[in-house]
Amino acid sequence: MKTQLSVLASIVAVLCLSGCQSTTEPVVTETTNQQAEPCEIAHTDIHDAADCDVAKEGVIEVIHPLEDVAVDIAVPKEKVTEAPVVISDVWARIANQLEMAVPDDSRVNVQKNWYLKHPEYMARVVKRAKPFLYFIVEEIEKREMPLELALLPIVESAFDPFAYSHGRAAGMWQFIPGTAKRFGMQQSWWYDGRRDVIASTVGAMDYLNYLNEYFDGNWLHALAAYNSGEGRVARAIRRNEKAGKPTDFWSLDLPRETRAYVPKLLALADILKNKASYNFSWPEIENVAVIKAVDIGSQVDLAFAAELAGMTLKDLHALNPGYNRWATDPDGPHRLVLPLDKAEAFSLALAKIDRTDRLNWVRHKVRRGDSLGKIANQYHTTVDIIKRINELDSNMIRLGDHIMVPVALKELDSYSLSQDQRLASLQNTKRADYKLTHNVTSGDTLWDISRKYNVSTRSLAKWNGMAPTDTLRPGQTLAIWVNKVSDKQQDDAILRTLTYTVRRGDSLSRIANKFNLKISDIAQWNDLNAKRYLQPGQKLTLYVDVTRLKNVG
Predict the structure, then answer these.
(1) From CA 136, how far away is CA 143, in angstroms rounded?
(2) 533, pLDDT greater than 90
(3) Residues 174, 523: Cα–Cα separation, whole Å
(4) Residue 44 CA: distances (Å) to CA of 40, 267, 466, 492
């Protein structure tokens, strides 16, 4: 969010970013063999140009990398029986407390008409919001802040904690790294607090409260600043003051995306408050707590925790989207969000298990060519963790030493919501007949690469979980999808790079046969001993003829 970005929800068609500055690519006429992509609203293709324009008005796309991640949490029936509530629907609880004036303004009416025209979008949003909305409302009420803020994740991300957008904004509340750090969200290799619903909600309320005080209690100014930064809104106010013009939100000269951002929120508030008058179906969410944060005290494998809680790994990870990898962060936060009806039994069971038994371990014998970095990559952990566990003061290791390393309980593919697996799933989603891969080298840009493969920069970025203006890293692997392969690409494709994740039961012989390669080549490319077993989840670099990729899964 926020100081330097802007957003659009392509899938949700709503402004994403809690404060982003629009960055515009050069306008270029492109010739590409890719089909034009439709406007995607809540995973539904919309081809009507005018409708699409309203949804995308003035903002940069918010991307939902997964088809839909929503946990169907049961409402604790005993809770409802013992303590019946007057208001049974959280949305009704919100609607009863909405106070912001909604003007009869064309900007609001355009957005309102769009939402009213797309009830299926709201149904999808409510499904995502179901586990978290009660917690969010409780947090807002506790701070005595406007309940309109509970609707902000609809505008930002369609309540998708895995959403990301231009400028590296991420999470339900769409924070960029700098603003997230400023408001208390940890970010590490293991964990990203911007996607942690608890941490990001607390951070969002802190930020919004700060903005409200900064603008002397003017919530529309605060909301505009959440989107485009307090400095930009403050400058717009000063310009109007100097020119003798009104300084209310509607009179300010703000970026196009911000001028649409606040109307979107007010349009949603008006529809919710008057849904009966609009005859609009806004699905209910029970007005009871359905989740609980459980103190786990130390790092734990998510697969192990899921089994202990009697949940699927995907459902547990969906409730805990802040964890990037196969385990929680060794440095905390040491908590897991669980369904309320499972929390107590999980806590009791976990208390009986020694902390060292919460992870799997391997005893690795240091071989020639090993380094801590290489070992960390092999076992999908970090150098710092290996050093800490083995009480190493430096990165020096000796041939023949034994090192203890934590490893995932299951194959890495099982952790489908981890950062690596989300990216792999996105890159492997079939977009055309052929998938190429490109290894980024120093000086590469998305523009240069898009020209080389005759695809659009927007598509190239989307296929790889990026924004068109994001910076590339040397060594980064990009997926590229094409419907046909040029003679030059076919010549180059003999050494096209593919990253392969080892599955249970794989062997070098089986992989070599699958890709029509030599075992010796695979071993040489990956510095492997051809006689040693492969580990599930291990990454292998393969150089494959692109014409063979069409039928390879």
Answers:
(1) 11
(2) no
(3) 42
(4) 6, 21, 21, 37
Domains 360-408 and 419-551 share a fold: yes
**Catalytic residue flag (residue 257):** no
* Per-residue pLDDT tens digits for 5-48: 333 333 333 333 334 333 333 333 333 334 344 455 544 555 56
What is the mean predicted confidence (pLDDT) over 139-161? 96
Report CA dihedral (175, 210, 320, 334) to the nearest 10 degrees. 120
User: Which CATH fold topology does 77-278 show?
Assistant: Lysozyme (1.10.530)
The CATH architecture assigned to 419-551 reads Roll (3.10)
Task: Give me 352's structure tokens.
Answer: 């009986």
User: Which residue from 171, 179, 163 is spatially nearest to 211, judged by alpha carbons?
Assistant: 179
d(CA 174, CA 227) in angstroms, rounded, equals 10
Torsion of CA 313, 319, 321, 327, to 10 degrees: -40
Strands (E), 129-275: 164-165, 169-170
The answer to whether residues 57 and 50 touch, using CB atoms and an 8 Å cutoff, is no
Asked if residue 16 lies in contact with residue 7, where contact means CB atoms within 8 angstroms, the answer is yes
Task: For residues 404 and 363, give the distance between their C-alpha atoms in angstroms, rounded to a whole number.
Answer: 5
Domain range annotation of the chain? 77-278, 291-356, 360-408, 419-551
Q: What's the alpha-carbon Rg for the chain, to the nearest Å?
A: 25
**pTM given for the model:** 0.75
Is the pLDDT at 364 greater than 70, yes or no? yes
Please compute the mean of the pLDDT values over residues 204-218 and round it to a whole number. 97
Cross-strand pairs, 496: 544
Are 87 and 137 a contacting pair, CB within 8 Å? no
Tell me how far apart the alpha carbons of residues 276 and 337 are, in angstroms, rounded to a whole number: 35
Residue in the block written with tokens 């068109």? 468
Residue 241 predicted with pLDDT over 90: yes
| Rounded Cα distance, 20 and 467, in Å | 13
40, 57, 61, 156: which one is catalytic?
156
The answer to whether residues 544 and 498 touch, using CB atoms and an 8 Å cutoff, is yes
Cα–Cα–Cα angle for 211, 214, 217, rounded to 5 degrees: 80
Q: What SS3 string covers 397-438?
A: CCCCCEEEEEECCCCHHHCCCCHHHHHHHHHHCCCCCEEEEE
CATH architecture of 360-408: Roll (3.10)
Alpha carbon separation from 393 to 331, 362, 377, 382 (Å, rounded): 19, 21, 20, 15
pLDDT, position 342:
96
User: Token pair 């608890």 is at which residue?
Assistant: 198
User: Taking a C-beta distance cutoff of 8 angstroms, is the pair 194, 200 a contact?
Assistant: yes
Residues 61-98 have pLDDT tens digits of: 666 766 666 676 766 665 545 555 478 999 999 999 99
Q: Tokens at residue 106, please?
A: 């064309």
**Predicted pLDDT at 458:** 87
Nearest to 33 by CA among 490, 483, 493, 488: 483
Helices (H) and strands (E) in the chain, counts: 24, 14
